[in-house]
Design brief:
Blueprint: H1 2-9, H2 15-51, H3 56-63, H4 66-94, H5 98-122, H6 138-150, H7 154-158, H8 162-172, H9 178-190, H10 193-217, H11 219-254
């Protein structure tokens, strides 16, 4: 494990830089992507938390849905640990360290696609450069999934405090999402379970502010932030892609073939 971490840390950009890249992707992409995808799940919990008995301050704190976010972080970190751990085993067994660079490149391409799609909303002609494909549910899909899950999970949604909210976060953390796929590809490139967990944890923390904004101020305000994010997010996604490509080339410089 130490060899793989030191390999990444000796590259032009370190493992903390990889974490910073996915954190910024979660932070900026959250207002443009997570608000639409996860907003319905958040709003379904906020109403119940606000109506729960108890002091007003406790109800307001419940509306932040901290257990839910902790549950999502647990799932993401677990997925990252599995992805990073498996890649580490493969690299140790085969000595093909270029595989780490390959997955860094995949992560960079996924973030590049997100950035180009975002720019395409501002300059529609750019969308012609982006391959067609669907990597997540989208807003309509998230709304349908919320309705589908409402019955089997209604007990958790009815009182999303404490362990109920935590388990909701754990379960909903498995929802298909293009940004999570990109973060997972970055986690694979870490080459260790610990590195993969840290990468996905950084991504999860980055998505929290946008979802808290929806929880506290409502979806309308979240959409106002989304309008601003539509201009800010694409360049940052492209910057993240450049950083990940730089990491990939740094690993290739030190990888035996």
């Amino acid at each position: 494990m130490h060899d793989h971490l030191s390999m990444l840390q000796s590259a032009p950009l370190s493992l903390p830089a990889l974490m910073a890249a996915v954190f910024m992707a979660g932070l900026t992409g959250g207002f443009g992507h997570c608000v639409g995808m996860c907003g319905p799940f958040v709003l379904a919990q906020v109403g119940a938390a606000g109506e729960a008995p108890g002091p007003a301050l406790a109800r307001a704190g419940g509306a932040l849905l901290l257990p839910y976010h902790l549950g999502r972080l647990t799932t993401y970190a677990g997925l990252g640990a599995v992805a990073g751990g498996l890649s580490g085993l493969v690299v140790r067994a085969t000595e093909y360290r270029w595989l780490l660079a390959l997955f860094l490149g995949i992560a960079a391409l996924l973030f590049l696609r997100q950035g180009l799609v975002g720019l395409g909303r501002v300059a529609p002609r750019l969308l012609r450069l982006v391959p067609a494909g669907r990597f997540s549910l989208g807003t309509a899909g998230a709304a349908r999934l919320t309705a589908l899950l409402a019955r089997p999970l209604r007990g958790l949604f009815a009182d999303p405090r404490g362990l109920n909210g935590y388990f909701l976060g754990v379960l909903l953390g498995f929802i298909p999402c293009g940004m999570v796929y990109a973060a997972l590809a970055a986690a694979v490139s870490s080459g260790s379970a610990a590195g993969g967990a840290l990468v996905l944890a950084a991504f999860a923390v980055g998505t929290v502010p946008s979802l808290m904004t929806v929880a506290v101020a409502g979806r309308a305000v979240g959409r106002q932030f989304a309008g601003l994010a539509a201009w800010i997010t694409p360049p940052l996604m492209l910057l993240n892609a450049a950083l990940l490509f730089s990491l990939a080339f740094g690993v290739l410089d030190r990888a035996p073939f």
